[in-house]
Amino acid sequence: MYTYQTEENVGAERERLILEHLPQVRLIARRIYERLPENVSLDDLISTGVIGLIAAVDHFDPAQGVQLKTYAEHKIRGAILDSLREMDWAPKNKRRRAKQIEAAIKTVEQRLGRTPGEEEIAAELKISLEEYQQWLFEVRGLTIGSLEFASEDQEGSRLNFIPDSEEKLPSTTLERAELERLLAQAIEQMPKMERTVLSLYYHEEATLREIAEITQMHLSRIAQLKAQGILRLRTYMERRWSAQR
Length: 245
Hints:
- This protein is mostly helical and 245 residues long.
- Helices cover 70% and strands 0% of the residues.
- The chain has two domains: 2-87, Rna Polymerase Sigma Factor, Chain: A (Orthogonal Bundle), CATH 1.10.1740; 92-244, Up-down Bundle (Butyryl-CoA Dehydrogenase, subunit A, domain 3).
- It contains eleven helices and no strands.
- Helix 3 crosses helix 4 (68-87).
- The N and C termini lie far apart (61 Å).
């Protein structure tokens, strides 16, 4: 009787924790969904996120010194991002355009010795500024995971360089400190508005729509600035980190 009661209590606590953290699943799913094409279902992302939450609750170990909310976020994001990778939802032409933008940013920056503006990047791509901004809007979803999350199989990637404060990513303190220093340098060199958008999004956890309201800019423009900011950071980090290694 005692064993049965114990198992019942454990089951009730498990259900309580899952229900308590469901809003976290919806928040993370919505933040990812707003940068995806319309053919991706929000309900599917939430369902997948719930699976990640259940895994977090079942495998959580308080002895590791990490809060359940932090651990759950890692698992929820991981489940959703893994499902998107399996879907291969992004058309190849969009991936190609993202690489073209990164290459153009790198080329212009090396030639000018400074952070290039949108007009200069567009000129390097030999397209109009309007078309370039449309490219940015189209590739916005491809930046998912680049700065927000490092799954277990991506732990060594130098592009996943924003770790949770309670996690040890990258694996060594030295690499982490150096990556953070390079990231700070990259952010300092970014155009002010891109820096503001990324700060509001990552540090204040504002949605793109909220950022649009704060800055009094169109939602699509905020999406463009966020995509360009991330591509700019990736380009900077690729070059600086590779050179130091």
